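Service request form, structural biology core

Requester: graduate student, group of Dr. S.
Request type: structure prediction, single chain
Budget code: on file
Notes: please return the result as structure tokens.

Sequence provided:
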Amino acid sequence: MENPNNRIIAVGRLEGGLELSHEVMNEPFYTGTLLVKRLSGAVDRLPVTIPGKLMGMLPQEDVQLVMTGQVRSYNKVVEGAGRLMVTLFAQSIAPSPDNDTLNKVSLTGALCKPPVYRSTPFGREICDMMLAVNRAFGKSDYIPCIAWGRNAQYASRFNVGDRVRLTGRLQSREYQKLLESGEYLSRNAYEVSCFTLEAADGEPAPAPAYVLGENRYVFEPAGRKHLN
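Core staff response, request fulfilled:
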């Protein structure tokens, strides 16, 4: 079912095979990883979920594919704790010989957590957001998003409940979590990196509560050590 508030189109190659994940009303769903290039040459390893009815659209040979669908999320218990999992939910699949860096997301939703503005040790401005995007049957997807530079400044002005419209790309990011033993565990995070950002109601974002550039602060989630 097409949702104008949640759309993604991405081109890449499947890494290895697909695994049966679960069934809903006797329809199987399969999961795998789509390798999507960036213009820089880096590769995003995106989780994908493919309904069984689309499996016949997959070619037998290893070719580049274009997938359109939605960015969805669900909760999963990992190592005894709940984790938010993000996936590209495919609604159509076709071979795509062109544009091997296509990765575009369009979302409209409401902020369900206060934005977290921070700057890296190198002075780069970042703002983390959690966007709740409605879908059919009263469900919602909770999608982590990240804005940079001026977009980060703009995003930091929004409040919980504000509706936001954005475009960007779905990306993967490796980080290390510090364990109680003192060792680091490598993990992957998935988020939408924003290209454009605006208030969905057409009104400007409220004025910031502090002067950006004079009262900056550095914030890193506890237990994380970002990889360069």
